[in-house]
């Protein structure tokens, strides 16, 4: 199967069969270089898209207004996501999970690909049907959480969505802590 077909199928599976997609992403066994390259490329693409839309529709992206510079948004996303991946791997391990940092980070990098695709769809709705876009964004957030928790459940081998949700929430708290520290540093340096 060609790379393009594999990526297309993986995208489809991620939205319709996230359990199988997570298993595929982990089975690929990407190197750290590949994981972080994919992750950083998606963070930069997402940030560029956010700033482009803010240029076309001023005040459409709160992160643009709050942090102001693209590099700051990229740094925040990088640090927070890495902290969340570390937290989920560490907490999951304490609860007899099988996932390690590398597999969790690979899934987080793939989630960035999915988020970028959803971001594009969301902006299309913003242009075509502005009144529906808010509802659509809420639905996308819910769907993203379901996919994310399923990914974590597969990575740790819990076979228990409640346990995966608990681990995801605790791991995300680590991300929120890092976000608070980073935001404080950015505002002190402004």
Specify Rg, calculated over alpha carbons. 17 Å
On the 0-100 scale, what is the average pLDDT?
A: 88
Low-confidence stretches: none
Percent of residues in helices: over 70%
Task: Provide a count of the helices.
Answer: 8
Which class of secondary structure composition applies to the elements?
A: mainly alpha
**Strand content bin:** under 5%
Shape category: globular
**Number of DSSP-assigned strands:** 0
Order of helices and strands: HHHHHHHH
- Let me know the largest β-sheet: none
Q: What separation lies between the terminal Cα atoms?
A: 50 Å
Notes on the protein architecture:
- By secondary structure, this protein is mainly alpha-helical.
- It contains 8 helices and no strands.
- Helix 3 packs across helix 5 (about 70-95), helix 5 (about 70-95) runs antiparallel to helix 8 (about 160-190) and helix 6 runs antiparallel to helix 7 (about 130-155).
């Amino acid at each position: 199967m060609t790379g393009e077909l594999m990526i297309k199928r993986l995208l489809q599976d991620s939205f319709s069969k996230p359990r199988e997609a997570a298993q595929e992403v982990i089975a690929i066994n990407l190197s750290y270089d590949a994981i972080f390259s994919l992750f950083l490329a998606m963070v930069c693409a997402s940030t560029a898209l956010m700033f482009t839309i803010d240029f076309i529709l001023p005040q459409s992206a709160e992160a643009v207004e709050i942090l102001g510079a693209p590099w700051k948004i990229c740094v925040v996303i990088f640090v927070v996501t890495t902290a969340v991946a570390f937290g989920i791997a560490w907490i999951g391990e304490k609860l007899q999970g099988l996932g390690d940092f590398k597999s969790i980070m690979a899934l987080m990098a793939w989630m960035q690909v999915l988020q970028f695709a959803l971001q594009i769809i969301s902006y299309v709705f913003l242009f075509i049907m502005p009144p529906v876009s808010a509802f659509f964004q809420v639905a996308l957030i819910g769907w993203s959480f379901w996919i994310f928790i399923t990914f974590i459940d597969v990575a740790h081998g819990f076979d228990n969505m409640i346990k995966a949700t608990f681990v995801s929430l605790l791991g995300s708290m680590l991300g929120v802590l890092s976000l608070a520290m980073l935001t404080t540093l950015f505002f002190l340096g402004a």
